[in-house]
Design goal:
The structure holds two protein chains of two kinds.
Chain A (H helix, E strand, L loop, with lengths): L2 E8 L8 E4 L8 E2 L4 E4 L1 E8 L5 E9 L11 E7 L7
Parallel strand pairs in A: 1-7
Antiparallel strand pairs in A: 1-4, 2-3, 2-5, 5-6, 6-7
Chain B lengths: L1 H10 L25 H7 L7 E9 L1 H16 L2 E4 L2 E4 L6 E4 L3 H11 L4 H9 L3 H11 L9 H12 L5 H7 L9 E8 L5 E3 L2 H6 L9 H8 L9 E4 L5 H6 L7 E4 L2 E4 H8 L14 H13 L8 E6 L9 H8 L7 H7 L4 E9 L16 H14 L3 H10 L7 E7 L6 H8 L9 H16 L2 H9 L11 H5 L8
Parallel strand pairs in B: 1-4, 1-11, 4-5, 11-12
Antiparallel strand pairs in B: 2-3, 5-6, 5-10, 7-10, 8-9
Helix pairs in contact in B: 3-4, 3-5, 3-19, 7-10, 12-13
The chains are: A mainly beta, B alpha/beta.
């Protein structure tokens, strides 16, 4: 149950304040792009989505920082754009 | 403990054959349907200010059910500011997590809300359930052909829950005073020794529709005291088309892997052991890794888990704290109280732990001879159920220290009764589905008074713009007849 502070940014530097979800939980927003928040250590997938629940920016990262790091010292996670799925 | 034996002695005589319950295959995985927090919250949103309210009920038999009933009455009589209105705090609970006897009250509350608490007293707490169970069995020999758990389940279904299912729980949800909490009854999976929670997230893994399950089934499984009662058997229908379909449906959180469909959170729980050159990341988060390992077994990829055998939840989690701890520390569960804290959706916490742990008198310390085989067996069964995980509680206390202010941890537990005579009186009450009426009344009064007198409870209620009514009778008044005499 170890927790760690992370800060999620986008590779283009944009999207500040956009809701971020973790590990496919599209019910509760975990945090926002550009603002540090706490998550579990281990493997996590960080995502932003559009209104149709389509993932638009994503990064899967192993968070290995030991628990107890301060919010002022977050692990940086950089999201990459997800190409749109080919239409059927 | 002594009554556990009497129940065992009667019920062990009864034969058993398998009759697994009682759900059909899940047609599709839908985060907006089924018994989930988000579904209930959409029907009847909580209206108090940024507060997480969690209750846990544990302990055995009617002793636990009555103590939990009393604690709920305290919340029902505490008005707080909720939007423009004043509502009872009991209508603003997020989660009730229960094991063992506490599950009767938890489920009843989920169905009937605070208005139904009076009925629980008459329909269950003050009933001679044990005699009825024995007579029903003697008068209807056909029951001998069914598993022992069916005797308890049949009684609960007929006399207490009246055939209601989880679909009725969803339908019962109403705004305002009629708002119900997300009530999660917990059993223990005999195969893994881990907690099995009755909610649709868990049932997605076994591809079953929880809405069809009778409430009495879940309560009986959660309170299936080992040996005395047989396990409750549930059919596992995974893998199924709905799981495969979920991987191509946005917003379900399921993905396709080379081994088949899986919720992404589960894949990530397990993925740490091989990911990106990290040697053994699970060692840094063993609880998460273990959670994923157990969840993976329900996907039944080897075809060796077609049935899930469930016993008393107290075996795996004697305070009912596993689920609250997970929701307070995981960003990938729903609801995720961690995410609420991260985003400012919640900044206050009430965690009310109601534990009716008994402590039957014994003479183990007075004899040089080792206890006999029955005492040894009963102690072996009872110890994991009755022991209290204060370490886990301490861990929660630590984890929620930062984001929640006030953080109110309210304990309703006989251990905290100051007077030793009174403490012994309550701890000595039998673990049974029948208690003398006076004891039931004392337990209800005690549960209520211990909540109302708690300084932590007063702190959270004050923060919510409410006022705690006076405890009448107080714990001291309840204890007066049982006080230890000065030596």
């Amino acid at each position: 149950m170890a927790l760690c502070w992370v800060k999620v940014v986008r590779s283009d530097g944009g999207g500040i304040g956009t809701p971020v979800y973790v590990d496919g939980n599209y019910i509760d927003i975990a945090g926002a792009v550009g603002t540090p928040f706490r998550t579990e250590t281990g493997l996590n997938t960080f995502e932003t989505i559009d209104a149709g629940f389509i993932v638009t920016w994503q990064k899967t990262s192993v968070i290995i920082t030991s628990p107890g790091n301060a919010g002022s010292n977050p692990v940086l996670v950089t999201l990459n754009p997800v190409p749109p799925a080919p239409s059927a | 403990m002594k009554t556990g034996w009497s129940l065992a002695a009667v019920l062990l005589l009864l034969a058993a054959c398998a009759s697994p319950v009682r759900t059909s295959e899940l047609p599709r995985i839908d985060q907006n349907a089924g018994y989930r927090y988000a579904v209930l919250e959409q029907k009847a949103p909580k209206t108090i200010d940024k507060t997480v309210v969690i209750l846990t009920f544990s302990g055995g038999g009617t002793r636990a059910a009555a103590l939990a009933d009393g604690a709920l009455r305290a919340l029902a009589e505490t008005p707080v500011k909720a939007g423009d209105a004043r509502l009872p705090l009991a209508s603003q609970i997020d989660l009730v997590s229960s094991v063992s006897g506490g599950s009767v009250t938890a489920a009843y509350f989920a169905l009937g809300g605070t208005d139904g608490l009076g009925d629980l007293e008459t329909q269950f707490l003050h009933s001679d359930v044990m005699s009825t169970l024995v007579w029903r069995t003697l008068l209807d020999p056909a029951q001998l052909a069914y598993p022992r758990i069916d005797i308890l389940e049949g009684y609960l279904d007929e006399k207490v829950f009246h055939g209601k299912t989880y679909a009725d729980l969803i339908a019962a949800e109403q705004p305002g005073r009629g708002r119900r909490p997300f009530v999660v009854l917990n059993a223990a999976d005999m195969a893994s020794g881990s907690v099995f929670s009755f909610n649709q997230d868990q049932f997605d893994l076994i591809c079953a529709d929880l809405a069809e399950l009778k409430i009495a089934d879940a309560v009986a499984a959660s309170a299936a005291f080992p040996v005395a009662l047989s396990a409750l058997t549930i059919r596992n229908r995974a893998p199924c088309p709905a799981q495969r379909q979920a991987t191509t449906t946005p917003g379900t959180g399921w993905i396709m892997t080379e081994n088949g469909p899986v919720p992404r959170r589960l894949a990530n729980d397990l993925g740490a052991d091989t990911a990106q050159g990290v040697g053994y990341p699970a060692a840094q988060n063993l609880a998460r890794f273990r959670r994923g390992t157990v969840a993976l077994t329900y996907l039944n990829r080897e075809g060796t888990k077609t049935y899930v055998q469930l016993l008393d939840g107290g075996i795996a989690d004697n305070l009912g704290l596993t689920l609250p701890l997970t929701l307070l520390t995981s960003p990938s569960e729903s609801p995720s109280f961690l995410n609420w804290a991260n985003t400012g959706k919640a900044d206050k916490l009430l965690l009310l732990v109601v534990n009716a742990r008994g402590q039957a008198a014994n003479d183990f310390g007075q004899s040089a001879r080792p206890p006999g085989i029955f005492d040894t067996l009963l102690t072996t069964i009872g110890t994991p159920i009755d022991s209290t995980s204060y370490q886990l509680l301490g861990k929660i206390d630590q984890l929620v220290d930062g984001p929640f202010n006030p953080k109110s941890l309210v304990m309703v537990d006989f251990d905290f009764i100051a007077d030793p005579g009174c403490r012994a009186h309550f701890q000595g009450m039998a673990t049974s589905w029948t208690l003398p009426g006076a004891e039931v009344d004392e337990l209800i009064a005690l549960g209520k008074a211990m909540v109302l007198q708690s300084p932590d409870y007063k702190a959270i209620v004050t923060a919510l713009g409410g006022r705690v009514p006076e405890a009448n009778p107080s714990v001291e008044q309840i204890c007066a007849p049982f006080k230890a005499k000065p030596s």
